[in-house]
Amino acid sequence: MDRKKNEQVHYAALCGGLTGCITRFVCQPLDVLKIRLQLQAEPISTYSAVSKYRSVPHAIACIYKEEGLLAFWKGHNPAQVLSLLYGVAQFSFYERFNGLLREVPYFEEHNRTRNFFCGAVSGTYAALVIMPLDVIRTRMVAQDSGRGYRNAFHAISEISRKEGVRGLYRGLGPAILQVAPLTGGQFMFYNMFGSVYRSFATLPDNSQLPPTALLVCGALAGLSTKLIVYPLDLAKKRLQIQGFAKDRQTFGKHFVCKGIFQCLFAVTTNEGFRSLYKGLIPTLLKAGATSAMYFPIYDMLLRFLNTNFPKR
């Protein structure tokens, strides 16, 4: 790979990392809400007398009253590092792998297939890199106030000491199963919606989309893919808190399972099929907001670097 291509990969990595940091900070409260609702074994219903959180508004009010405003940014530090590493790993690998596949005749002629395949592979690679941080983030959001881990470093130490490396990779199965269709589909849907817009607006195939179109295409891509893989995300979160019951005494019944299939079966059997989509509302809001910001910010940062620091 020549110097120009190397610089393009480095720019992609930098822009991906910065984009992840910005979107994570803005969307962290939605992430806290999502995780809390996903982990609740009791019904999320205004008619339930045993549920800690009965709706999204009730959860917001309850968290603020019991834990204060900063509780909406619990787990933010590991989540921020997670977003940084995920963005760097995903976009740098995507750009590099996409460049390689362009030299393959089949993928050169089938843009959507190439975008899906590159997105899926890059997302899987990124998920492996950030999995321990994902476990730490989930547990810090899920733990009682005054219990559990003091910070991310304490969490790494405690999990490694008590549960070993396996503890840092709890939920890896559903994470890998969901990341390929999630990330691959996101890139594919993003480019597909972009193509539809270009056709509707009679723009050239490779033309730059206006900011509004980037916003809409990113949001639609995020919403479309999130709906497909959501039950796997719920299973991942519940697997990540296995062995963590003593530090979540105020959140109701602790859910116990041994694997992804047992988890999905237990949720469906004991809580109902709709429970596979607990926390969907903040999840969709987060997915739409994140995707809507992610691609436009990434594209703008990349254009800024290419304009002000042109490749030699």
Beta-sheet strand percentage?
under 5%
Query: pLDDT average, as an integer?
Result: 85
Form type: globular
Contiguous low-pLDDT stretches (5 residues minimum) are none
Radius of gyration equals 20 Å
Written as H for each helix and E for each strand, in order along the chain, the element string is HHHHHHHHHH
Amount of helix? over 70%
Count every helix, treating DSSP H or I runs of 4 or more residues as helices. Answer: 10
Largest sheet, strands/sense/barrel: none
Number of strands: 0
Distance between the termini: 14 Å
Structural class: mainly alpha
Q: What's the layout of helices and strands?
A:
Blueprint: H1 3-39, H2 56-67, H3 76-101, H4 105-109, H5 111-142, H6 152-168, H7 172-200, H8 211-240, H9 260-271, H10 280-308
Helix pairs in contact: 1-3, 1-10, 3-5, 5-6, 5-7, 7-8, 8-10
If you had to describe this structure to a student in words, what would you say it looks like?
- Helix content is 73%, strand content 0%.
- The chain has 10 helices and no strands.
- Helix 1 runs antiparallel to helix 10 and helix 8 packs across helix 10.
Outline:
The chain is an all-alpha fold and 312 residues long. The chain is built from ten helices and no strands.
Tags for this model:
312 residues; 10 helices; 0% strand; globular
